[in-house]
Design goal:
Blueprint (H helix, E strand, L loop, with lengths): L15 H7 L19 H11 L4 H11 L9 H16 L3 E22 L5 E5 L21 E2 L4 E9 L5 H9 L8 E5 L5 H10 L4 E5 L2 H4 L21 E2 L41 E5 L1 H10 L29 E22 L4 E11 L7 H23 L6 E8 L7 H9 L1 H4 L4 E9 L3 E6 L4 H9 L9 H9 L28 H8 L3 E7 L12 H8 L4 H19 L7 H21 L8 H23 L4 H13 L18 E3 L7 E3 L1 H8 L3 H23 L3
Parallel strand pairs: 3-7, 4-5, 5-6, 6-8, 10-11, 10-12, 12-14
Antiparallel strand pairs: 1-2, 1-9, 4-9, 9-11, 13-14, 15-16
Helix pairs in contact: 2-9, 2-16, 3-9, 4-9, 9-16, 10-14, 12-16, 17-18, 18-21, 19-21, 20-21
Bound molecules: zinc ion (ZN).
Zinc ion binds next to helix 9 and strand 12.
């Protein structure tokens, strides 16, 4: 799983794999002479050069082929086989490696059925139709799981269908404004724009009996370009599986929020009936389908025409549906889900730090896939294994990192960030000293590098990409800036420098950084190389698709291995932690200003934002003083480093966010109604959005206190 992003067209790079083989490779970037966090970078520069020479495109391609040989959904024997493979590679590189099991509640589908009838009783469709295209080598494997939603309810319901566009809050509000009552109805909504669990959550709140989720060709199908196998976009029968868990409440095993689901955790310590009427998880049925199956339903829906922006790319006019009369379409859904406590396997490999063994640099990627998962997540695993290969080569030469490096291969991410969340919950105390978490999930779907990070690590990520060569010539950073600027010219081998910085995104949710950052306050980053990717969570996200569309020569797997490994190396060996709290304070100030303006626009002008603004100002002052200490990189470094590390933890409020106490970060959370994208200063913003001035005032105090804790943490460096 990862955030569903809108993707810029990348036609300009399409010829590159051919031209590359004809050219000599671009010269490697010249090593940096001074790097923030290092008193003298010359020794480290040599080490980085050695590291960068190791990750191999050929070997990354080999890992990818092996990892995607079979479907490997979490808790299956094939998933265990991939754990063994990763553990073997970790051990071969010299990592102290363990396969760590957890016992967690997961559903697997027994029966999934969808039928639709018009008002006269004529059958319009019966499905789901098997995913099939001409020539895909993996589609007929009997271990391909039928399309289903993780955390779906079970049941057998029949009702009239109503079209709800993307199933966003504003879409449901629009239906309500048109007096369309969803009680006892079945919602049909298209994928995109928000997390699928939010669509189901909103439908359930409004009384719907079930949800059909489909992929409209407008969003990732023929409207975007040629469909697989002609091109990279979603074919007619392609289905997006995925979890509908209410992740915006908490991630991980639904039965154990805040507690690790170790094998010896007794059942009595697990929540009861989480999928029941009083549970925190979906109660209604939700089934994902292709547009092949959705089309006859949508075409038969009559009633009001759709509002502006709701029309998809199927070749007929869309309507909202009638709840009675000749335009009513009755849909019959059957979902039998086998909920069991199942064993999953994280793989954890450690390299003990020579100077600060208790300070961990954690690197992670999930390993489980809905089916073959060539892009999601095996491109990440193949890249991470080559990062490990590179670091192993340094270990062989006698090098040891100053801080402990921990590589993690997570399981059951797709079901709700389960493997990472349980591990974080188990090790929360030790992770109090973890200096950073570097995530990768969809490492490679194309050539377009992007990154998200906490503000303190945004410049750090840019710095790392300045040291890594791009397959397109120059550095990853230079190419990133070019695509960012939307340059329509073919990229030159040595792009001209510009003063404009590329923007690094904010961390919302949808991948394994969530428990690290938003539950316990470990500074995090997430990186990927995006492209036209229409086979997300379908059978067709396989090795054949990958080598045809994403990265035929595995050069981007190599690139991502270098970026990820260099993040770990640079952080693990830094004299002073290279966190930039001046930028962090400035961004928080901007968040407060924006929230204030929103509150005024919403008629909540009486709310007093001044104390929070003043607290952000105090933090900025403290951050500037600390930054001069960091630049000097002398004095009491352990104290300075501890202060820098504790500043992020200071943003954690023990009570958590209103109505979702598992989320405790006062600056970032996944949006309650978006799920993937970040909501900033969430306590305040969500209270303003809910027009609740008392709650907003209380959350402004919580924020002010967190900022003052951060200021005290920074001041403790002096
Ligand atoms: Zn993923």
């Amino acid at each position: 799983m990862t955030a569903f992003k809108s993707i810029a067209p990348l036609f300009l790079f399409a010829i590159l794999p051919f031209s590359l083989s004809a050219q000599s490779p671009a010269p490697p970037p010249s090593p940096a002479t001074s790097v923030f966090g290092y008193a003298d970078f010359s020794t480290q520069a040599k080490l980085e050069e050695k590291f960068l020479s190791v990750p191999s495109a050929r070997l990354a391609g080999q890992h990818l082929k092996i990892l995607t040989a079979e479907p490997h959904m979490a808790a299956t024997p094939e998933d265990h086989k991939t754990a063994e493979y990763v553990a073997q590679k970790f051990r071969a590189a010299g990592l102290d490696t363990q396969i760590v099991p957890y016992r967690v509640l997961l559903n697997q589908p027994k029966v999934v059925r969808v039928e639709a009838y018009d008002a006269s009783g004529k059958q319009l469709m019966s499905g789901p139709t098997r995913e099939h295209v001409d020539g895909d080598p993996g589609q007929d494997n009997p271990r391909v799981v039928m399309p289903f939603n993780g955390s779906s309810g079970s049941g057998d319901v029949t009702a009239e269908a109503v079209y709800a566009n993307y199933g966003r809050l504003e879409d449901f509000n629009q239906l309500a404004a048109q007096h369309i009552d969803l009680h006892g109805k079945i919602v049909i909504a298209r994928y995109g724009s928000n997390f699928r669990g939010v669509k189901v959550y909103l439908a359930e709140q409004r009384g719907a009996l079930g949800v059909l989720l489909y992929s409209d060709p407008q969003d990732d199908g023929y409207y975007k370009g040629d469909a697989y196998p002609m091109g990279p976009w979603r074919p007619e029968t392609g289905v997006q599986r995925g979890s509908v868990q209410y992740l915006f409440k908490y991630s991980g095993d639904p039965e154990t929020p805040g507690v690790a689901s170790t094998l010896d955790l007794p059942d009595s310590a697990r929540l009861k009936n989480v999928t029941g009427p009083n549970g925190d998880q979906p109660k209604i049925i939700s089934i994902p389908i292709s547009y092949h199956d959705a089309s006859p339903i949508l075409q038969a829906l009559k009633g009001p025409g759709v509002p502006q922006g709701w029309q998809g790319a199927l070749p007929f006019r869309y309507h909202l549906g009638q709840t009675s009369g000749p335009g009513a379409v009755r849909v019959h859904l059957v979902s039998v889900q086998d909920y069991q406590r199942r064993i999953i396997w994280d793989v954890i490999g450690k390299i003990k730090g020579s100077q600060y063994p208790d300070d961990w640099v954690v690197v992670g990627n999930h390993r489980d896939a809905w089916v073959y998962g060539a892009v999601d997540p095996s491109s990440g695993t193949a890249s991470m294994l080559e990062s490990v290969h590179g670091i192993g080569a340094l270990l062989e030469q006698g090098w040891r990192p100053k801080r402990t490096i921990v590589f993690c291969s997570w399981d059951a991410e797709e079901q709700g960030l389960v493997g990472s969340t349980e591990w974080v919950e188990q090790h929360a105390q030790e992770l109090d000293r973890a200096v950073a978490y570097f995530n990768v999930d969809i490492a490679v779907a194309g050539t377009d590098f992007s990154a998200s990070a906490v503000p303190s690590l945004k410049e750090f990520v840019r710095g790392v990409t300045r040291a890594v060569p791009s397959p397109l010539g120059g550095t990853v950073y230079q190419q990133w800036r070019l695509t960012h600027a939307g340059d329509s010219e073919p990229p030159a081998a040595n792009p001209k420098p510009s003063t404009e910085e590329v923007s690094v995104g904010d961390l919302g949710s949808g991948s394994d950084f969530t428990p690290f950052l938003q539950h316990i306050g470990v500074p995090s980053t997430d990186i990927s190389s995006d492209g036209p990717y229409g086979v997300y969570h379908s059978t067709f996200d396989d090795y054949a698709w990958f080598t045809m569309n994403a990265d035929p020569h595995f050069l981007y797997l190599q690139q991502m291995a270098r970026v990820l490994g260099l993040e770990a190396l640079r952080m693990a060996d830094a004299d002073v932690l290279p966190f930039d709290y001046v930028t962090y304070a400035r961004e928080i100030s901007a968040y407060i200003d924006a929230a204030k303006k929103k509150a005024q626009d919403a008629g909540l002008g009486a709310l007093d934002f001044a104390p929070a603004q003043a607290a952000a100002g105090r933090m900025a002052n403290a951050a500037r003083k600390v930054q001069s200490l960091q630049s000097a990189a002398n004095g009491n470094l352990p104290r300075l480093n501890l202060a820098l590390r504790q500043t992020e933890t200071a943003f954690i409020a023990d009570a958590g966010l209103p109505n979702r106490p598992w989320y405790r970060h006062t600056i970032y959370a996944p949006g309650e109604f978006t799920g993937y994208s970040a909501v900033v200063i969430p306590g305040v913003n969500e209270a303003v959005d809910a027009h609740n001035p008392d709650l907003a005032a209380a959350q402004l105090i919580v924020l002010t206190q967190a900022l003052d804790r951060a200021t005290r943490a920074l001041d403790s460096a002096n």
